[in-house]
Amino acid sequence: MSGGTATRASGRYQVWVTGLLSLNFGILFFDRNALNFLMPFVQPDLHLSNTQVGLFSSALSLTWALSGFVVGRVSDKLGAQKAVVVVATLAFCACSVVSGLATSFLMLLGARLLMGAAEGGVMPVSHAMIVGEVAPERRGLAMGVAQNLGSNLLGSGLAPILLVPLAVAYGWREGFYLAAAPGLVTAALIWFTLREPPQVEHHGAGPKVTLREAFAHRNVVLCALIAILLVSYLVVCWAFMPLFLTNGRGFDPQVMGWLMATLGISAGIGSFAVPALSDAIGRRPVMIGFAFLGAILPLGAIYYTGSVWVLAAIFFFGWALNGLFPMFMATIPAESVDPRLTATLTGVVMGIGEVLGGVLSPFIAGSLADRFGLAAPVWLMFGLCLVAGVLALGLIESAPRVVARRSGRGLSSTAPLTGPNTGAA
Question: What span, in angstroms and rounded, lies between the C-alpha atoms of 325 and 332?
């Protein structure tokens, strides 16, 4: 479609597309995070070391990244976005069942590798569907809801509340079986209620830029570097914070579950609040502020010894940086270069973050934990978010409303985005 509204769907359909893709990604993340919340039960049952715990996250992140890169490029070339999401959803449901059947480290590792391959392409293609259907002035909000609302309300919020009591009562395997079923429902809803999005046409009426040209833009490079750091922050937290809270701080497993659920509530609110704030005041200041805010979470986990309610509040505000993920993975790169490359750019930036951050950081954190104790991964989180905040200082503003305001023109659905080597400072 062009920048106009001739082929853009109604506002009600835009909301439905965003909400359904958010729900689907939430079920996917429930699946991805299940092992982290069940790890206090899985680790002694399968006799796992902390290094092996880290390898599970590394393995999933590796195949997730490779899948995101390959599937994103294929989807952009073929335009078969809806079918890709449906097939991937059915595949990760099957992998969750296999995870529940695992009886050894190697079997569970293989299940996580397959799960990453199934899940990795879902978010890049979902973002491309949103770019094709949602108006530019609401793009940041829609992408934030799609990537973060469902994933955090379900994957980070509901998952520990449901899975930990289930594991206490029946065993950890049942948690994986529970995670598989809802994906069948969302796959059917996507197939029968969503259309294949119209093709996006860039304002310049020229050919798509190449990936090499895209990475000539400072924002794309910075977003890839920030992805490495903040993906590491999240993956290390998911993999080791439950163990640190139970084995390092001595919290009851169910208290740990509620503290981890606080992260999901925070990110669920942040999924629309943080991107919407960036739509209004700009991507750059929001990226800077919330990256630095993330430092309070690891500091609170290590040092705060008062009320668990206050600790939950520290977790809540520190985890607000989760709202930045759709911005640096999809929104800023697409706005800075070419929205027709949304799935490709999201897959590349996400892939770089997952490979260099998600793959390496859990292994490093596990090795540090075996050598220096479970506080070491938490200190690693502290350093990662500080460096991300420093890098965000170098971003060029890309929010359409803010760029239009600074250039003195009104925002319309046909207003051009910043080009590969331009933008408001």
Answer: 10
The whole-angstrom separation of Cα 22 and Cα 166 is 25
Return d(Cα 308, Cα 52) in angstroms, integer: 30
Instruction: Write the DSSP symbol of residue 36.
Output: H
Query: Consecutive 10-residue runs of the chain (425 residues): their mean pLDDT?
Result: 49 87 87 80 84 80 77 66 85 86 88 84 80 73 76 74 82 81 88 77 52 76 92 87 88 84 80 82 92 94 90 92 85 75 70 77 85 91 95 88 72 42 36
Q: Is 26 exposed, middle or buried (0-12, 13-18, 19+ CB in 10 A)?
A: buried
Q: How far apart are CA 400 and CA 415, in angstroms?
A: 8
Q: How far apart are CA 364 and CA 379, in angstroms?
A: 12
Q: How far is CA 194 from the centre of its chain?
A: 23
CATH match of 11-201+210-407 with 3.40.50.1450: no
For residues 329 and 342, what is the distance between their CA atoms, to the nearest angstrom? 10
Hey, what amino acid is at 41? Answer: F
**d(C-alpha 398, C-alpha 417), whole Å:** 8
Q: Look up residue 56 and give its two tokens.
A: 């599970």
Backbone CA torsion sign across 88, 90, 91, 96: positive
| Residue 413: φ, ψ to 5° | -70, -10
Q: Say if residues 276 and 144 touch (Cβ distance below 8 Å).
A: yes
